[in-house]
Amino acid sequence: MIEEQYLVYQCYGVTQGEKEEDIIYRAAGKTYLDFRRRISFQGKVSVEQRRVITEKVKNLLVKELPILFQTGTQEAFDEKHHEICQNIIRIYESTGGQAYGIAQRWVNQTLLHLALIEDHLHTGYWNMKECRKYFHVPVEQYVLEAAASKRKNKFKYGLNLMTAPLKHDKGENYQMGWYSPGEIQPPEFWDYPEYMEFQKAVRTRLKDMRPHTYRDCLSWAVYAYMEAAQRRSV
Asked: Is the pLDDT of residue 234 over 60?
């Protein structure tokens, strides 16, 4: 429908028939605009340096995400996902580095945007129907709150999981707790161990639900984000 094409163009600047690499590049650009304020640097980093780094990450995603779509198991997806995140972290090393929480946001949010684009434009570039079941949850504050709220009935889409890492310094052992503003580690400072513990806990909880309420982890994340974000806006 032309209305769907219009919506995708307004959100992403993507039109029907564009090349795969151009779509990924624009989806990655939208990701950056969504969370750039969460990226903090140690010391003074010029605007030009930030631009160069951002371009390197976007180009990396253009190159690597198509490979991610070709994985056929959760284990293979997780392994390639981790490799991409590590490569993103390396790109940031020249400016003092970033935590895993920033890298996962680049990857997971871009995958979410690609899923939305594919749902409307049906490009056929990716086997989205089969691949998205392996996707990770894009970890950010609203999704974390819905997943780890102690009150069972606070969120319709809450999971009541004690999977919010409490504040700790980099390199220290972490401890999972309930979501509490000011007491939990902000997602942009998460490292790989707490990130994967969170992902596996969400997967297990959704898998064990009867009847199966959500299509996959990505579907749950969208429901959870919308509910928590709307509560904050009231």
From this structure: no
The dihedrals phi and psi of 161, each to the nearest 5 degrees, come to: -105, 135
The model's pTM:
0.93
CA dihedral 133, 221, 115, 15 (to 10 degrees): 180
Q: What is the DSSP letter of 93?
A: G
- From 78, 113, 134, give the residue that closes a domain: 134
Residues 34 and 61 placed together within one structural domain of the fold: yes
Give the pair of three-digit tokens for residue 178.
Answer: 């309930």
Tokens representing 23 are 């779509």
- Helix (H) / strand (E) element for 100: namely helix 100-121
CA 158 centroid distance within chain:
18
Same domain flag for 10 and 57: yes
Percent of the chain with pLDDT strictly greater than 90? 74
- d(Cα 166, Cα 143) in Å, to the nearest integer? 16
Reduced to 3 states (helix: H, G, I; strand: E, B; else coil), residue 166 is: strand
Residues sharing a CB contact under 8 Å with residue 15, sequence separation 6 or more, in sequence order: 5, 8, 9
Instruction: Report CA Rg, the chain.
Output: 18
- Is residue 204 within 8 A of residue 193, CB to CB? The reply is no
Q: What angle do CA 154, 175, 184 make, to 5 degrees?
A: 50
